[in-house]
Design brief:
This protein has about 300 residues and is an alpha+beta fold. The chain is about 40% helix and about 15% strand.
């Protein structure tokens, strides 16, 4: 993907404002949530640093946050905030997969991170010193975004990763038990199985699991049971997750390899290149050939 390619799409943030500056937003937060937020799935990852008292509801779990904390939300799990104290303040940043290049090869998968993955612990309680350290990183992001530096979003990505690694270093004050919901367990298993098929490293490595039925059979459950669980937990159909992951891998292969379109089509489980061409164009609005030419700068 070109440096500015992800900046043209934008997304709608939690305050309803469309974000056009690189699929990223960072803000100072102060008494924004005076009423409970809706329990829905958002289209972005979110990291919140704050002081105040509230309750976070996510998946089948609720946790009281009554001390300085960092929280991590992902696009797969619906969540809601329930404010308890009248006053709280802090910061938050929101970003998409495109912004962080989450599906890049050798990139730490957010879905594997204990902070973001389904069933992980999304809350990290902080000491005053830890809060101050993370606050400094948020302030640097805000300052960097206000500059005219052409590569400022690359710098901001580094700050986001620093916050994530700082949180990984901290021992949570209150461990959250692994969700017991059958739907959450099934969804976790499906997502893990989906990610195990990637990255595709050779044209001869065709995907073994292509449909929701293939995943259901592998998990030894009925496909309707799988579909219901995944939609209930993530708000998206099983086929949508499969489709989006294949498209993400297709874009990487088109950009980073010299494979032919036919080789990529076969590696991604398509029997004929024409099927892959139609699939890719329907999802992205361009043909694989056009996408490859754009990413290699040939046009």
């Amino acid at each position: 993907m070109e440096a500015n390619a992800h900046r043209s799409q934008g997304f709608v943030g939690c305050d309803g404002v469309r974000i056009e500056n690189g699929n990223f937003k960072v803000h100072v937060a102060s008494n924004q949530y005076k009423t409970a937020s809706p329990y829905i799935r958002r289209d972005f990852y979110k990291i919140t640093l704050f002081k105040g008292i509230s309750r976070l509801h996510y998946a089948d779990t609720g946790i009281l946050i009554d001390k300085p904390a960092l929280t991590f939300s992902n696009p797969l799990v619906p969540y809601a905030w329930e404010p308890i104290s009248d006053h709280w303040n802090g910061y938050y940043c929101q970003f998409t997969e495109e912004f962080m290049n989450i599906h890049e090869r050798n990139h730490l998968s957010f879905q594997d991170s204990p902070l973001f993955k389904i069933g992980g612990n999304p809350v990290c309680f902080l000491s005053e010193e830890q809060y101050a350290n993370v606050e400094t990183l948020f302030k640097k992001m805000i300052a960097e975004e206000a500059t005219d530096y052409v590569h400022k979003y690359e710098v901001i990505k580094n700050y986001v990763n620093l916050i994530i690694h700082e949180a990984l270093r901290m021992q949570p004050a209150t461990p959250v038990s692994r969700p017991t919901s059958a739907a959450v367990r099934i969804t976790m298993s499906f997502m893990e199985l989906l990610e195990k098929q990637f990255p595709v490293l050779a044209p001869s490595q065709a995907l073994e699991l292509k449909t929701a039925g293939d995943y259901a059979k592998n998990l030894a459950i009925h496909v309707n049971h799988l579909n219901h669980a995944v939609r209930d937990v993530t708000g998206k159909a099983t086929t949508v997750h499969i489709r989006e992951r294949i498209i993400a891998e297709a874009k990487l292969l088109l950009r980073n390899t010299d494979w032919s379109i036919a080789d990529i089509a076969y590696a991604l489980g398509f029997d004929y290149p024409a099927y892959f061409n139609n699939f890719f164009k329907k999802q992205t609005g361009m043909t694989p050939r056009s996408a490859k030419l754009v990413t290699t700068g040939s046009i």
